[in-house]
Structures are given as structure tokens and as C-alpha cells.
Amino acid sequence: MKLLALLATSTIAATSVLAEDTRQLDAHEHGVGQLNIAFDGQQIALEFHAPGADIVGFEYAAESAQDRAAVDTAVATLARPLDLFALPDAAGCSVVQAAAALESEDGHDDHDHEEHAHDDHNHAEHAHDDHADEAGHTEFHAEYLLTCADPSAVTKITFAYFDTFPNALEVEVQVISDVGATSFEVERDAPTLDLRGMF
Ligand SMILES: [Zn+2]
């Protein structure tokens, strides 16, 4: 369980940084998601973040029924990891846990929204597409735990993710296994992560 504990620790650290520093979401780059993968025995833990722009195409607070439906659909899609990050059948992996959610910029979001309701309406016409607008950024966050009959058969991961989410261009991947931690970039035009060196 050592590697999973390590991932959990780094997840908690990242979450508290996010909570304390709202500029963290401003720093995200549209088109670029982040995936952390930890191999530990039969288990694979994954943690995924992506800008709202990549997943639903907007980062303002969903108000219309259409926008709320888009968020709900995205959360449901993100809760099916094997449809997004396809593993070789030979590995025999199944999902033990999967959770996905939309995170807004900070804990004050509802309060801010009340306060600026009039402003929002006044410049809604030009604000919605404005990336720098003070309405800020959102991110989707998901965590998965898989169990695999033969984890060493996970020699690659195919990112069907890019087919599902047309605005996504790249995923920065960090993989932790017995041989250490390695970083990768998986891009839309070459959507396969080669993991043969990780075992
Ligand atoms: Zn953004």
C-alpha cells in the first residue's frame, strides 16, 4: 500500500494548495489535463484533472438547463475511467471505485455569485467567452481505483478521452511504479501512452 499512500499524500497536498491559492486554477492551461497514475500490486490508482473548457467548453457557473445537463453528462462520463483511458484486455482490469466532480475556483463561489449577480448579467454578452473574466476557472476532478488480474500487462493506455472531449489537446501524465516516477505528455494526435518501461 506504500505507493497508494504516497499518491494519497500528494493528492491531499495538491488539494490544500488549491484551496489556499485560488491562482492555481488561473494557472491551468486550456486544452491540457493532468493524470497521475500509481501502480501498487494488483491495484492502479488514478487521479485526473482537466479544465472545464476542455470537458464542457465553458467555465462560467452553469445556469441554463442545457449547461447543467452538459456538466451532469460530463461528470457521468468521467466516472467511467475505462471508457476514457483504455487498458489492454490482457490486464483484466476492473473499476473498484470511481468518483468525478466539478470544482469551482474557490469556496466562496456561491457568495461571489450572489454579490456579482448584477454585474454578471450586465456583461454576460461579452463575458462568457472571455477567458480572463473574473468569473474565473473551473476544473473537473476525478479519482479512480482499479484492480487488475495482471497489472504488468498494462503496457499502454489508449486515450479515448480525446475522442470523447474534442476540446482536450493534451494530458500531462505522471506514473509511479516500482521503478520510480516518470512524466509523459500524451497528445491528441498520438493518443497512446507507452508504459513498457514502467515494469
Ligand atoms: Zn480556465
How would you describe what is shown here?
- With 199 residues, this protein is of the alpha+beta class.
- The chain has one domain (2-198).
- 33% of the residues lie in helices and 32% in strands.
- It is built from 9 helices and 9 strands.
- The protein has helices spanning 2-20, 23-26, 52-55, 65-78, 81-84, 109-115, 117-122, 124-127, 161-164; strands at residues 32-40, 43-51, 85-86, 93-103, 139-148, 156-159, 170-177, 180-187, 192-194.
- The chain has a 6-stranded mixed β-sheet, with helices on both faces. A 3-stranded antiparallel β-sheet has the order 3-6-9.
- Mean pLDDT is 82; it is low at 11-23 and 107-134.
- Zinc ion binds at residues 28, 30, 51, 53, 59, 137.
- Zinc ion binds next to loops.
Keywords:
about 200 residues, three-stranded antiparallel β-sheet, alpha+beta
Order of helices and strands: HHEEHHHEEHHHEEHEEE
Uncertain runs: 11-23, 107-134
What about the largest sheet? 6 strands, mixed
Beta content:
25-35%
Number of domains: 1
- Per DSSP E runs of 2 or more residues, the count of β-strands stands at 9
